[in-house]
Amino acid sequence: MNIISKALSVSALALCLGSANAAVVNGQSDFIENDDGSLTFIFDLVEADIDGMGDGMLFEYFGLQLLVTGDGNVVQDYPADGGLGLYNGADGDNLAGGESLTFDFPTLGEFEFIELVSISFNGLIAGDGHQEMADGMVSVNGFSIDAADYSLTGQGMLPDGGLVKSFDVVATADFTGYVESITFFVREEPLGVPEPGTILLMLSGLLGARFIRYRR
Predict the structure, then answer these.
(1) Backbone phi, then psi, for 196, in 5-degree steps?
(2) What InterPro entries would the database entry show (predicted)?
(3) Strand spans (E) along 62-174
(4) Segments of 71-108 assigned E as strands
C-alpha cells in the first residue's frame, strides 16, 4: 500500500462554493492507497487542532473532495488518538451522545458513488482522555455498530450499505470519541440489464427487419 501525506488544497472548490460557504475550513489528512483499490482517509495525524467555522471541513485527494458537516463546528482534534469531532457548546470537541457528522462527496459524477467498507474511532474510555481504543455504540450509514470493533484503521468491515454519495456517523449516549479514519471505494453505477421482454422485443424487431430484406 502507498501512504501519501499532504496538506489539502481546496481552492477550486472554495471558488465554486463562493460566499454562501465562505466559512468552510480546509482540513488535513493522510491517505492510504490500498492494494485492493480502496482509499483510506486518516484524520488524527495533524500537528495542531483545526477548528471549523460552522460550514464544515473540506478534504481533497486528487480532485475527489470530501465535505464533513455537523450541527456545530467540525473539529479536527490534536494530538494523535484524536480525529474528527464536533463542538457545539454542549461538551468538548468530541463526538458524543446524539451528535452526528455527515460525510458528503460533492465532486462525484452523476454515475459515481462511494462504497464505504470500513471506519475507525478513537475514544475517551472512562474519562481517561484520548485513547487508541474506543467503546460504545455508533450508527454508521444507518447501521448500529460497536466502536470497540472499529478502533484500528482497517480493522473492522462494515455491513454492505450499498452505493451512496453521502453517509452519517451518529454517536449514541454511551459513545464519546472521534472519527479516526474512513475506507471506501469509488464505484460507478452498473448499467442496467434489459428486462426479458425488452430483449424479446429487440430480437423480434431484428428478425422482422431481416425477413423484409429477404422478401425484397
Answers:
(1) -55, -40
(2) Ice-binding_C (IPR013424)
(3) 64-70, 73-77, 83-87, 100-104, 112-123, 137-140, 143-146, 166-171
(4) 73-77, 83-87, 100-104
Virtual torsion, Cα 165, 107, 81, 22, nearest 10 deg: -120
Euclidean distance between CA atoms 145 and 169, whole angstroms: 11
C-alpha–C-alpha distance, residues 79 and 197, integer Å: 60
**Facing residues of 44 across strands?**
none
Tell me the domain boundaries of the chain: 2-215
Query: Helix, strand, or coil here: 152?
Result: coil
Which residues, other chains included, contact 28 with Cβ-Cβ below 8 Å and sequence gap of 6+? 7, 8, 45, 46, 50, 59, 76
Nearest CA to 121 out of 18, 196, 43, 50 is that of: 43
User: Which is it for strands 143-146 and 166-171: parallel, antiparallel or unpaired?
Assistant: unpaired
**Could you give phi then psi for residue 200, rounded to 5 degrees?**
-65, -40
Query: In this structure, are residues 141 and 164 in contact, taking their beta carbons and an 8 Å threshold?
Result: yes
Per-residue pLDDT of the chain (216 residues; tens, 9 = 90+): 665 654 444 444 444 444 444 489 999 999 999 999 999 999 999 989 999 888 999 999 999 999 999 999 999 998 878 999 999 876 789 999 889 999 999 999 999 999 999 999 998 876 666 888 898 999 999 999 999 999 888 778 999 999 999 999 999 888 999 999 999 999 998 765 555 565 556 556 555 545 444 445
d(CA 79, CA 77): 6
